[in-house]
Amino acid sequence: MSPLPIHLADRYVEPLREGGSLPAIVDTEAGLFVVKFRGAGQGRRALVAEILVAGVARRLGLPVPDLALIRVEPAFGRSEPDPEIQDLLRASRGLNVGVRYLEGAFNFDPLAAGRFVGPELAADIVWLDAFVMNPDRTARNPNLMIHDRAPWLIDHGAALYHHHDWERVDAARIVAPFPLIRQHVLLAVASGLREADRRAADALSPEALGSLADDVPDELLVEGERERYHAWFERRFSQRADWLDAAVEARTEALSQTPERRFSRR
Fold first, then answer.
1. Which alpha helices (H) appear in the chain, and where do they start and end?
2. Beta-strand pair 67-72/6-15
3. Which has the closest alpha carbon to 185: 134, 242, 222?
4. How far is CA 125 from CA 119, 189, 264, in A?
5. Is 0.90 topped by the overall pTM?
6. What are 82-104's pLDDT values in tens digits?
7. What is the spatial distance between Cα 142 and Cα 161, in angstroms, rounded to a whole number?
8. What does DSSP assign to residue 115?
């Protein structure tokens, strides 16, 4: 049983069409959540990635909105006029994944909101994204929100992308550098990546890593997959020298190419 709370989807409020997986704001007895549906094109593994990466972020002390499992019953959303939404909800009966809706939040922009992300926090976020191979923290798509004058990390469904084809995941691929870290929106300001690694080593004990997959409900996994995730995280963390070196090198190159880049201090 997952330790995440389970809430019943009561009302379909609004689709968020900027997301390729057609997430939506959904009302529950515990308030509003942005829900990603298992019936979307990215499937259940995108939901698993949301849970696992948020779990790593929480253990690192990084700001992520509250996460919950959202149960969709057969009657939910029947009044929706859009046939695409109807099809999505029919394919998503059972447990889905929601993050607390941050009302009034706005997308991070380095020039307008850079003062909310200092070098140490930026380094911790870059370290996280290199670890879980998250391609969605770019200037074009930062998946970083500002709410109540603080940053929040969202939308990690594209991370851990090797799990979409477990049969091709060998030891070398698990520990390989993450090339897309070069496009990270916070890379230039993320000073102290090796210090971030030391903080991560303190936070991610073997017990902490071993418990990550416990957050995922059985309903979202197939047989043996929980053990595969455990082995993946343990190996990528314990043999992180190459991908950490690559991230440090990428930052050095980013600074040499754009030495004038600075976040706003207003």
1. 43-59, 83-90, 110-113, 119-132, 171-175, 193-203, 206-210, 225-238, 241-257
2. parallel
3. 134
4. 10, 11, 19
5. yes
6. 999 999 999 999 999 999 999 99
7. 18
8. G
